[in-house]
Amino acid sequence: MEENNELKAYEKLAALFGTTPEELYEKANKPTVGSQKVPEDLTEILSDLSQKERDVLVLLFGLDGSPKRTPEEIGALYGVDKNDILNIAKQAITKLKNAEK
Predict the structure, then answer these.
(1) Residues 6 or more apart in contact with residue 77 via CB below 8 angstroms
(2) pLDDT digits over 32-57, tens only?
(3) For the domain that residue 61 is a member of, what is the CATH number?
């Protein structure tokens, strides 16, 4: 079931970034030097966001290759509740969609 959720996340992100889920998955999981695994082109796309917005999306969707975190887990890291994290993620995605236009 987790694979199905992961596929849905990649499908949503791929549609947002204008690529295929397979290409996005390959880029997100390619081996890199050091701990930074976010693909360069994805980093460029996310550069229009605040650091907190980037962090929330990376943690929520596992964009750096690490396991996806729940809004509750991310909220605990920032000292806010899950609704705040979901609002930050929604705001970030809206910014990304508007940047496409």
Answers:
(1) 59
(2) 433 445 566 777 888 889 999 999 99
(3) 1.10.10.10
19-37 residue pLDDT tens: 777 776 666 655 443 344 5
Give the side-chain half-sphere CA count within 13 A for 33: 0
Cβ atoms of 90 and 9 within 8 Å: the answer is no
Chain centroid to CA 25: 12
* Residues written for the chain: 101
- pTM, 2 dp: 0.60
Exposed, middle or buried by CB within 10 Å (0-12, 13-18, 19+), for 56?
buried
Tell me which residue range forms the domain holding 40.
2-100
- Closest by Cα among 61, 66, 24 to 42: 24
Burial class (CB in 10 A: 0-12, 13-18, 19+), 93: middle
* Count of beta carbons in the 10 Å neighbourhood of residue 16: 14
